[in-house]
Amino acid sequence: MTDNEARTEDQVGGEVAGLLLAAGGGRRLGGRPKALLEHRGHPLVERAIDILRAAGCTRVHVVLGARAEDVRARAALDGCVLVDNPGWEQGMGSSLRAGLGSLAGTGARAALVCLVDQPGIGAEATARVRAGYRDETSLVSAAYAGVRGHPVLLGAAHWAGIAATATGDRGARAYLREHEAEIALVECGDVARPYDIDTEADLVHLE
């Protein structure tokens, strides 16, 4: 890597913030917060933070909700900006709004959004999506066999529009559907598996 390339990487690392949505209460998992489910000896929230950092995000904001105090006490969250979402029971949309709101004024020009309950998506896929960043108008999404999934990169020019439409468990889905022609899809099916940990049956994916 040349010096110019290194400087570009550093600059983009500051412009693209990691945004981890980790507020879910695991209703279909007996009320166990997803952030504290263990995978390979560590809580999912720690693993997801490590992935965002390995993908090049020097700033990571983590949205907490269900049993937030337990998550703070039991997980290593050093160096992250922790965002409390008291309305987490309203669904992912409220966490996305809280997370994007927390990035206002930080200088970030895009948010690389990851979900805490997708341990099959690692640093390589996340870095591919981050590499699609061009400027604050960027919209980039991982794809699996051509089908849009996570993570997604949301340029700052879109944050207000996303926040206005992020309700319930839809997150940015409605906004992205309206702006589908602007989304750069990055195929990640060769390096990641986009399953969610939603039910007891899904726990088989945790090691």
Write the layout of secondary structure elements.
Blueprint: H1 3-15, E1 16-22, E2 38-39, E3 42-43, H2 44-54, E4 60-64, H3 68-74, E5 81-84, H4 92-103, E6 110-115, H5 123-130, E7 139-144, E8 147-155, H6 159-165, H7 173-178, E9 184-187
Parallel strand pairs: 1-4, 1-6, 4-5, 7-9
Antiparallel strand pairs: 2-3, 6-8, 7-8
Give a description of the structure.
The structure is a single chain. The chain is α/β, with parallel strands linked by helices. 31% of the residues lie in helices and 22% in strands. The protein is built from seven helices and nine strands. The strands form two sheets. The chain has a seven-stranded mixed beta sheet with strand order 5-4-1-6-8-7-9, sandwiched between helices. The chain has a two-stranded antiparallel ribbon with strand order 2-3. A hairpin with a 2-residue loop joins β7 and β8.
